[in-house]
Write a structure and sequence with these properties.
The chain has ten helices and no strands.
Length: 187
């Protein structure tokens, strides 16, 4: 797997993931040791093969989940938003529909966004897999090939053009930590 150095390097990328002691929502918290196998599986499942892509995904998940402390949007508390990349409800529905094992659960959940989110967050593989699924299905080839170069400009394009949010100092600091820990060239 691309992410072989886990969980040590994952702690370097998400320093507060060393423990769940004192986590406000303890049931949602995962340590680096718990997260690493799920992240590796997601990279294999969704074809994440470069350290630049991996660093971008890990930095996004660490930022959005408070170093893996949350998998449900708590701030501001948008119903149905969650998984480790704090994916919006419509994308969670699309992602859940892509997982054959969730067919029966989805039939029961219907359009209840909280129930759909619960299907995803109750399984670590699905919970941590959403970011890689999103990259594979929603990011265009230009963004992905840019990330393979590992440049900060390519990461900024990922954040603005694929994720659809703004680059902030906190986000960029997370990217730099992840890129360095993953051995992305130039970091």
């Amino acid at each position: 797997p691309i992410f072989k150095r886990a969980p040590g390097s994952l702690i370097a990328m998400a320093p507060n993931s060393k423990t769940c002691a004192g986590a406000q929502f303890a049931a949602e918290c995962k340590t680096a040791a718990q997260a690493a196998p799920f992240i590796n599986t997601s990279f294999k499942t969704y074809g994440i093969t470069s350290t630049g892509e991996a660093a971008a995904l890990i930095s996004l998940m660490a930022f959005e989940s408070g170093d893996f402390k949350y998998n449900i949007n708590r701030f501001p508390g948008r119903p149905g938003q969650g998984t480790r990349n704090m994916q919006m409800p419509a994308f969670n529905m699309e992602y859940a529909k892509s997982i054959p094992a969730l067919k029966d659960g989805l039939a029961k959940a219907g359009t209840d966004v909280k129930a759909v989110l619960a299907l995803l967050t109750s399984n670590g593989e699905y919970d941590f897999g959403s970011a890689a699924w999103f990259m594979k299905t929603k990011c265009d080839a230009k963004v992905r090939s840019g990330l393979k170069t590992g440049t900060t400009d390519a990461w900024k394009m990922y954040i603005t053009e694929c994720i659809g949010t703004t680059v902030t100092a906190d986000r960029q600091a997370g990217w730099e930590k992840a890129a360095k820990a993953m051995g992305v060239p130039g970091h």
